């Protein structure tokens, strides 16, 4: 090796022992005190200054400085309290900025326990930082306190570093014992060495070594600092109330997060015992995430409020929580941290997301985490489970992330090996969903792309029972404490609403295909949305989502087939017999005597206390939150009076409010306007100028191939970006955001997120029908983004729809998107100076002219 690739420790005798420092070396000192570390740093720094080396001191500890202020030494102050990702990213940027052959001194790494409370994360930091230092031919000094960190942390550091050195003081004498010295060797290198002045004397005689080591304290295997904290916290249960409160607040900052409205609520309702119970069901360490916190808090509120009246109706939960630290560990230990850092930059945000997503789908988990996965699966046996995202930012005040990340059902059937494989892949799938385009754009649009978005995971037992070879709850849905989507002036918006389905709740949160969830206003549960729909059966739910235990997968099953099973409850609670339908079948020659069902939930709504109880649940939660709430739930019935509700999720409901009353223009016969209708809109009272209309022609769209329909959707996405900042009204056939091109334009929400108004036009000839999906993730996105929604049922009474009002204007598509001229037959973009849209909640009038 060239002599210029070597450097001195500042102790010439020890330089001979280890054959000098080499460019690329990370040097880790195990010490008993900071003073000992400083004794090694001082000669190293002094020698580096004499050699005109560039020296950077990375300062993050609360201890006294390792290096006194000196000229020619750059001191960089970093805040480890921001969390692992922010700190590690800042260090990476610093190393990149300082460049090659820089010499570093870091504060004692043990200090990071004060901020991260986890040995695991210190090991992760070392694993991501040291290879980069090595790559740039730097030399870096680190220290860790002896007998503090776990053996696995030390093992990880030993594996990564080039030099691992024990430093002892015995009887006022200093000894260095090299434990690892990569790419160098001598017959005496790994003996202890007595250091005095510039000399290093090898201690090779067995009697001297034995005497030296007999004075040193050797410890048994140490627990992770995270585990130690929680073990000590259990002792606080025997202490006075003040001590318990102090301990509880510390643990909440580790599991739930730092100062926030949610933390305040948790502090009010959780006891120290509650927090310790949560911790006992955590896999790994770190935060449990927003979805888990929301679910646990809502349940605790309902247990404590109104003298426990809700308790008899609540199904117990036995969830587990995969801590957010495991997400980082998974990335670090699979070698993807550098890619993660590149993806977190503005330039790499979308560019590297796909590569990182593919990696996240195929990584390996640490052995200790895999063992805990096995134990969780053994606990659940063959009960179906669901693996749900629970990120740090999710389900919080301001950002719901509704439907942005994956939830994966595990039917949990088969051999233990097969069940484990499916479970592990479900976790990978949730992790990979952090790189989904919709999630990325959501974070970007809300200025969150630079914030840490660690992914914790909520593992829940699926509520329901086995019916034949299918597993499902009787009913499921979402509930909003504030019903902003009123379609009738008599509706009490403060009574709340439900969006209800039979079977699993996936059909309640997603825009269903050729199916309609039941919309329930809780002030009058039997009221139906004013949609001028004459066919009750057509606009009801026909299929239910269930877990197929034979196929070991989530699937859809026809309701009529499911109702042939014994549902272990009165079927009449959920459905009415369709005698007219049975008569038509007999006329057609199908005389098997079976009477089909229509899912109306009429008796459930009329004869049980279910809706009254749900109304009170929403009221209590919103009162405690002092904010509207959005919940997900399911329920299982024995009979009219005996049922259990499983509260799966609770989050603040993002709302716009109704707005001030608006004076609508009067539309007389023969007046020219774009459209006018009664009802079928959401977004409160508005008077909004429209600068552009993007119009998708129904007939041309229907005649397009499926491939072209997807291409049309992508053009809408480009216009969404091009016209950002303008007030744009987007109007087209059927359902926006559907995944089925035959039902509407299959755009992602991110492709219409900058629109001011979206309109869905019913087309009877094409079978395209809007769905007022109150409570779904799609409409949560609309509300959060402040997008006004309207459905236009062309041809129905009191509806005016005049497309020529827009189509007579010049089509600006090619001017805006020069490569999109071939879509001018189906997409018309018009500049609409002076156009306004008006809506009034009280009169339910809507006008655009």
Low-confidence stretches: 530-534
* CATH structural architecture of the largest domain: 3-Layer(aba) Sandwich
CATH homologous superfamily label of the largest domain:
P-loop containing nucleotide triphosphate hydrolases
What is the structural class? alpha+beta
Helical fraction: 25-40%
Count of individual domains: 4
Describe this structure as you would to a colleague.
With 849 residues, the chain is α+β, with helices and mostly antiparallel strands. It has 4 domains: 3-214, Rossmann fold (3-Layer(aba) Sandwich); 288-295 and 315-461, 2-Layer Sandwich (Dna Ligase, domain 1); 465-652, ATP-grasp fold, B domain (D-amino Acid Aminotransferase, Chain A, domain 1), CATH 3.30.470; 675-848, no CATH class. The chain contains 28 helices and 36 strands. The strands form 7 sheets. The chain has a 9-stranded mixed sheet with strand order 5-4-6-7-3-8-9-10-11. A 9-stranded mixed sheet has the order 29-33-32-31-30-35-36-28-34. Strand 32 (757-761), helix 26 and strand 33 form a beta-alpha-beta unit. Helix 5 runs parallel beside helix 13 (324-333). The longest helix has 17 residues, at 34-50.
């Amino acid at each position: 090796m060239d002599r210029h690739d070597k450097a001195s420790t500042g102790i010439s005798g020890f330089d001979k022992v280890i054959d000098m420092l080499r460019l690329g070396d990370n040097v880790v000192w195990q010490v008993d005190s900071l003073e000992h570390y400083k004794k090694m740093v001082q000669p190293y720094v002094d020698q580096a200054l004499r050699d005109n080396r560039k020296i950077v001191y990375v300062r993050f500890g609360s201890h006294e400085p390792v290096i006194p202020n000196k000229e020619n030494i750059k001191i960089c102050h970093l805040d480890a309290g921001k969390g692992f990702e922010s700190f590690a990213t800042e260090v990476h940027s610093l190393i990149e900025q300082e460049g090659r052959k820089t010499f570093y001194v870091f504060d004692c790494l043990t200090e990071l326990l004060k901020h991260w409370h986890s040995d695991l994360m210190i090991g992760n930091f070392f694993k991501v930082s040291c290879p980069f230092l090595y790559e740039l031919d730097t030399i870096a000094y680190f220290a860790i306190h002896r007998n503090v960190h776990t053996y696995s942390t030390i093992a990880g550091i030993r594996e990564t570093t080039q030099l691992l050195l024990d430093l002892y003081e015995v009887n006022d004498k200093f000894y260095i014992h090299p434990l690892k010295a990569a790419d160098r060797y001598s017959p005496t290198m790994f003996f202890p060495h007595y250091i005095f002045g510039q000399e290093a004397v090898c201690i090779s005689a067995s009697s001297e070594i034995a005497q030296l080591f007999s004075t040193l304290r050797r410890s048994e295997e140490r627990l992770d600092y995270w585990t130690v904290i929680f073990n000590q916290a259990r002792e606080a249960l025997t202490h006075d109330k003040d001590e318990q409160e102090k301990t509880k607040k510390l643990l909440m900052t580790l599991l739930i997060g730092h100062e926030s409205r949610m933390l305040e609520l948790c502090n009010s309702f959780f006891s120290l015992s509650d927090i310790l119970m949560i911790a006992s069901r955590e896999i790994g360490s770190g935060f449990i995430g927003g979805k888990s916190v929301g679910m646990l808090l809502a349940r605790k509120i309902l247990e404590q409020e109104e003298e426990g009246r809700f308790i008899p109706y609540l199904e117990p939960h036995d969830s587990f929580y995969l801590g957010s630290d495991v997400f980082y560990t998974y990335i670090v230990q699979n070698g993807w941290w550098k890619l993660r850092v590149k993806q977190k930059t503005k330039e790499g945000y979308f560019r590297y997301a796909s590569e990182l997503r593919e990696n996240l789908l195929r990584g390996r988990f640490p052995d200790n985490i895999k063992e805990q996965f096995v134990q969780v699966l053994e606990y659940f046996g063959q009960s179906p489970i669901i693996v749900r995202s629970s990120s740090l930012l999710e389900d919080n005040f301001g950002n719901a992330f509704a439907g942005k990340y994956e939830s994966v059902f595990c039917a949990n059937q088969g051999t233990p090996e097969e069940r484990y494989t499916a479970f592990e892949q479900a976790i990978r799938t949730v992790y990979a969903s952090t790189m989904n385009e919709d999630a990325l754009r959501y974070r970007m649009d809300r200025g969150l792309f630079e914030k840490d978005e660690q992914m914790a995971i909520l593992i829940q037992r699926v509520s329901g029972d086995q019916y034949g070879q299918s597993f499902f709850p009787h009913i499921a849905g979402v509930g909003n404490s504030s019903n902003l989507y009123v379609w009738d002036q008599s509706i009490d918006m403060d009574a709340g609403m439900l969006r209800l389905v039979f079977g699993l709740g996936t059909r309640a949160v997603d825009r269903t295909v050729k199916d309609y969830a039941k919309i329930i206003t809780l002030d009058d549960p039997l009221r139906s949305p004013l949609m001028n729909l004459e066919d009750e059966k057509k606009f009801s739910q026909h299929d239910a989502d269930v877990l197929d235990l034979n196929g070991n997968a989530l699937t859809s099953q026809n309701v009529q087939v499911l109702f042939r099973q014994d549902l272990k409850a009165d079927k009449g609670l959920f459905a009415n017999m369709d005698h007219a339908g049975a008569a038509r079948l007999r006329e057609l020659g199908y005389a098997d005597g079976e009477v089909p069902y229509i899912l109306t939930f009429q008796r459930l709504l009329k004869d049980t206390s279910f809706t009254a109880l749900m109304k009170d649940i929403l009221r209590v939660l919103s009162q405690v939150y002092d904010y509207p709430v959005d919940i997900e739930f399911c329920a299982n019935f024995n009979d009219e009076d005996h049922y259990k509700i499983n509260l799966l999720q609770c989050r603040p409901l993002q709302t716009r409010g109704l707005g001030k009353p608006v004076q609508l223009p009067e539309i007389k016969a023969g007046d020219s306007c774009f459209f006018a209708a009664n009802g079928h809109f959401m977004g409160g009272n508005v008077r909004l100028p429209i600068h552009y209309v993007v119009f998708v022609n129904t007939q041309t769209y229907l005649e397009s191939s499926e491939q072209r329909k997807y291409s049309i959707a992508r053009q809408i996405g480009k216009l969404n970006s091009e016209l950002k900042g303008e007030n744009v009204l987007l109007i087209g056939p059927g359902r926006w955001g559907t995944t089925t091109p035959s039902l509407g334009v299959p755009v992602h929400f991110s492709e219409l997120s900058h629109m001011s108004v979206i309109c869905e036009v019913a087309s009877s000839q094409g079978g395209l029908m809007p769905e007022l999906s109150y409570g779904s993730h799609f409409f949560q996105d609309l509300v959060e983004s402040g997008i006004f929604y309207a459905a236009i049922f062309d041809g129905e009474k009191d509806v005016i729809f005049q497309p020529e009002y827009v189509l007579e204007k010049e089509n600006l598509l090619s001017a805006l998107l020069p490569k999109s001229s071939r879509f001018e037959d189906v997409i018309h973009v018009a500049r609409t100076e002076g156009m306004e849209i008006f809506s009034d909640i009280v009169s339910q009038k809507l006008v655009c002219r």
